[in-house]
Amino acid sequence: MKKITVYCGANIGADDIYKNLAQQVGKTLAQQKITLVYGGGRVGLMGIMANTAMENGGEVIGVIPHFLCTKEIENNDITKVIKVDTMHQRKTLLNELSDAFIALPGGFGTMEELFEMLTWAQLGLHSKPIGILNCKGFYDDLLAMIQKMVDKQFLQKENQAMILCSDNIEDLLEKLRHYKAPKIKKWLGSETT
Q1: Residue pLDDT, tens place only, 108-166
Q2: CB neighbours (10 Å) of residue 87?
Q3: What pLDDT sits at residue 193?
Q4: pLDDT at 72
Q5: Is the domain defined by 3-177 classed in CATH 1.10.3720.10?
Q6: What is each CA distance from 10 to 30, 32, 48, in whole angstroms?
Q7: Torsion sign (Cα): 18, 140, 116, 168
Q8: Domain definitions of the chain by residue range
Q9: Which residues contact 48 (CB under 8 A, 6 or more apart)?
Q10: Is the torsion defined by CA of 131, 175, 157, 123 positive or negative?
Q11: How confident is the model at residue 52 (pLDDT cuts 50, 70, 90)?
Q12: What angle do helix axes 16-31 and 169-177 make, rounded to 10 degrees?
């Protein structure tokens, strides 16, 4: 596992625990010689994480669409910035560059990117591990909703198991390293009425 894409907020959140988490992730990835791949912004948790990785001797690759260079403020203090034209190109390249994915706390963008990677894995388009760093229960409600999807038979347990979760970055990295992708099964309830 040499490169990990991390999805996280372009805001810093309402509590210093999120800032501290971003710093811890950046530092840990640098110490473990894992290249951080992320959205390329200088702001929010993204910027804190990337800058901390760089400060600790890490390698950081940012992928940012041209139109976001002023909103997310492109981070030129990292190893490499790759500019693309569209969000789809950004997400595709983040996938291609990485061996695994981690979601930290964030908003709509973080959720959308996390669920796109989960959907691609569910469809067999990749078999890379996907983790959630559940800082202080940030993702508890989402995990409960995913359990409801399983209970109501909209999601198979095998697909639910694709989500690796921990509140500790070192533990989550170990789970990512030992992940075995599930075999793809037929869809539940594929009959039409």
Answers
A1: 999 999 999 999 999 999 999 999 999 999 999 999 999 999 999 999 999 999 999 99
A2: 15
A3: 41
A4: 74
A5: no
A6: 21, 25, 10
A7: positive
A8: 3-177
A9: 12, 19, 22, 23, 26
A10: positive
A11: very high
A12: 50
127: DSSP letter: -
Residue 160 makes CB contacts below 8 A (sequence gap 6+) with: 146, 147, 149, 150
Give me the pLDDT at residue 185, please: 65
Q: Which helix (H) or strand (E) holds 3?
A: strand 3-7
Torsion from C-alpha of 78, 82, 88, 94, nearest 10 degrees: -50
Cα 135 versus chain centre, distance: 14
Asked if pLDDT for residue 190 goes beyond 60, the answer is no
| CA dihedral angle for residue 150, residue 153, residue 158, residue 164, rounded to 10 degrees | -20
Sign of CA dihedral 120, 123, 127, 133: positive
Cα angle 119, 121, 123 (rounded to 5 degrees) comes to 70
Res 189: pLDDT:
53
Q: Roughly how many angstroms between the first and final C-alpha of the chain, as a whole number?
A: 45
